[in-house]
Amino acid sequence: WESMGIAFLLNPKGGSVAYTGYTDSSFASPVSRTFYELVFTGEAPQISRALAQAKSKHPQDVWMNEYLNTLGEPEMWVYTAKPGTLKVESDLKAGVPGRVRVLGPDGAGLRGARVCVVQRGTYLNAETDAEGWASVSAPEAVGKAQLSVIAQNHAPHSSSVQVAKAESGAQTPPRILVDDDSEGESKGNGRGDLTPDEKVEIRLKWDSPPEAGTLKLAVGDPRVKVERGEFDAARPDGSFLVSVPASTRPGGQVWAEVRLEKPGVQGAWAWRSPLPVQGPALRCVRVRVEDKKGNKDGRVGWEDAGGEAEIFFTIFNSGNQPASDCVLVLSSEDSAVKIGQPEMKIGAVKPDDALESRAFVFGLDPAYDGRPIVLMLAMRDKEGGKWSASVRLEVPPAPPILLSHDAGTNCVNLSWRPGGTEGVAGYHVYRSLKPGGPYKRLTEKPVKGMTIYRDLEVVPNDDYYYAVTSVTGEGLESVRSEEHHARTLTPLWGRKR
């Protein structure tokens, strides 16, 4: 079997290993072969594009896609010739769209080169056209900027350039503001920020508003839905409309980019601003069970059928604002579970703080068979924030039924019957020298494939007490079975006549 790694290393054109697979995997996998051909024939100019094209041609080959691991930058160019030197020209002025031209060693314009202008933490990206020209968004200020260019089969270019003062046509940047005061189309808490599960308007405040053009909005978080993403720049009351999903995590920020496109002007003005995401974020971090009316082992099991148990939830606020007047609501779709009082008030939870709830009491139907229990916990606060958690109580199996023993002078043979629950993978055997324990586990690993056990670590004429437990494949262990008493025999030569 030939691997992708071997194929790369033996490639007659040379080059470094960018992706590799397991050495015992067949190179005949369609996606791997296509990827190899795209890389080494130069059809795909970048490693990431080669992988994307190979996946698109063979979407059913999922297993191979999962272990294609990069040993290099996905944006790395695929070189098919000796790297040449780039020649870069720029015309950058503050407040107006700029132009950058990229030329190859022969002086001809180079198509498909990536251009990036960095100034004051703002990145202006573009790609060159057929003549080598790239239109970049308007730099914000006069001064130095860093210009970087990368292109296939050329050495990367990096230089410091000067952003000049514009003679005319400059556009002052706006302030990008969040309007969530629940008026008009907004639906929020009125704090002027982004909060999960809000619909907000984004407005622009100008010192010198543009007289013409189209304003467009883009956001950096793909979860944030832009419902209205453009309007006429001549409208003083124009706004964008976005929806912030409940899954957006408070404490971070969403980058908003506003672009101004003017008729007859190549390129665009662009301004970026971080919009903070504020609010609480509740989640359940711990579950504690007390079965005081069951067998008191701190977990729910088949033996609690017909009884009641208490469950406690620890709620943590990972957001950056307090959650006030919090309410928990517990429910279950399992017909065997009967919840007493499903709703509980727990008060306020501060940021980076945790609070354990009081006890929810739930009962189990007498016919409950020991299957796993799924509980749903809904959480809400005063501001209308909503969160939820699903809790699965993994229920240990029923213990086996210890049937009999056969005692000799130096051994005890035990036999038992399975307890009847599914998922049992083996059994552990315990022994005590006194009734009721303490017990010592005799089996290092669960007994599998049989329901018998021979204890050879006993002495003649003595009493022993045994119990057996069931163990699932996940390692859940049942309570001990009913205790079984065995007494070893006295040797014939040790008896009195």
Would you kindly provide a written description of the structure presented here, covering whatever features stand out?
With 497 residues, the protein is mainly beta. The chain has helices at 4-9, 30-40, 47-57, 62-66, and strands at residues 19-20, 69-70, 87-91, 98-103, 114-119, 122-127, 133-136, 143-150, 157-163, 175-179, 198-205, 214-219, 225-228, 230-232, 240-244, 253-261, 269-276, 282-290, 308-317, 323-331, 337-339, 343-349, 354-356, 360-364, 373-380, 386-393, 401-407, 412-417, 424-432, 440-441, 452-455, 463-472, 484-487. A hairpin with a 6-residue loop joins strand 8 and strand 9. The longest helix has 11 residues, at 30-40.
- Major beta-sheet overview: 5 strands, antiparallel
The number of distinct helices, counting runs of at least 4 residues, comes to: 4
Helix content: under 10%
The overall pLDDT average reads 83
Spatial gap, N to C terminus = 77 Å
Short description:
This protein is mainly beta and 497 residues long. It contains four helices and 33 strands.
